[in-house]
Amino acid sequence: MHTIALVTQKGGSGKSTLATSLALAARRAGHTVRLIDTDPLGTLSNWQRRRGPAEPLVETVLNAREIEGRLHSLASQGVTVAIVDTPSGLSAASTAAVRYSDLCMIPARPSIADIEASALTLSVVRAWKKPFAFILNQTPNRSPRVGSAAATLSDDSGFDLADVVAQPFIVMRNDHQDALAAGLSVGEYDPDGKSAQEIRNLWSWTETRLGAGVSAEVPMPRAKQFTALEFPILLRKPVEIVVYPPASHALPAQTGIRARWERYAAHLMQASASPSIEPGMSTSEQRVSR
After folding, report:
1. What is the CATH number of the domain that holds 193?
2. What would the DSSP string read from start to end of 140-186?
3. 214 in a domain, yes or no?
């Protein structure tokens, strides 16, 4: 059984909508599919209620400790694809979903807020050394921001764009929300529509990656570029800037957190070396003494 975790720190990225549509696309491709809802908001569970009990697809697992056991149970029942929808933010459930997944998919809209949040998600994925891919979701039909967002996600991951940014991008259209409201996937809601075709192509891309997933470990020799990075990890090649001032000018004072800390420590050392204050001295005498 293949397990896909849809994870991101940012809310509103479309995880639940993608989960339902990918699940039905996988079933259309011949898989036995289950959705696991780990989000207390219960978006998938509500979708299942609107869909009706005749076709159970969603299982609710709110306790992170139960996720591994439920996945083993589904595998023993003959399920071939399990898709885990996770809550926004960092939680025990989202971490467990990453830990027991075969592929982590990180939805992100083409906005700076989503791209920054994806870096935090990627740091968790990298900690568990899991294969991953970004999904550019809710994109404009035509905009240079989409290509820029894809390139940024690729740069931050340390891999080529084609390896880690899923294809195609999912364009924002009303039928995604209309399908969710009707208890359907977008492929069921309008099988001949553009959104349905994008989701089918996205599942084909995903299925291929499940057979040859891109590991979250940075390949050598590129990994040597990132040995000095701290958590959370933003994989950009470090750049060192050296300034040579004219001989008649002194170097400006250092700036930044480290420089401020060093100056603060120096002030503390200087204060500790000041003349001691004798007991009984008045406040004005203490000032003069200093």
Report:
1. 3.40.50.300
2. -SS-HHHHHHHHHHHHHHTS-HHHHB-SS--B--HHHHHHHHTT--H
3. yes
CA-nearest of 122, 116, 196, 204 to 166 is: 204
Q: Is residue 283 part of a domain?
A: no
pLDDT per position as a tens digit, 79-125: 999 999 999 888 999 999 999 999 999 998 887 787 777 888 888 99
Dihedral angle at the C-alpha atoms of 240, 246, 252, 256, nearest 10 degrees?
-10
Q: Say if 247 falls within a structural domain.
A: no
Record the tokens describing residue 90, joined without a space. Answer: 């960092």
Q: Give the total number of structural domains in the chain.
A: 1
**Domain span at 112:** 2-226
pLDDT (tens digit per residue) in 164-206: 788 888 998 999 999 999 999 999 999 999 999 999 999 999 9
- Structural domain includes residue 92: yes
The kind and range of the H/E element at 268 are helix 257-272
pTM above 0.85, yes or no: no
Give the least confident one: 109-113, 170-174, 237-241, 248-252. Answer: 237-241
Two tokens, residue 285: 């005498």
CB count in 10 Å sphere of residue 90:
14
Q: Please count the other Cβ atoms lying within 10 Å of the Cβ belonging to residue 111.
A: 14
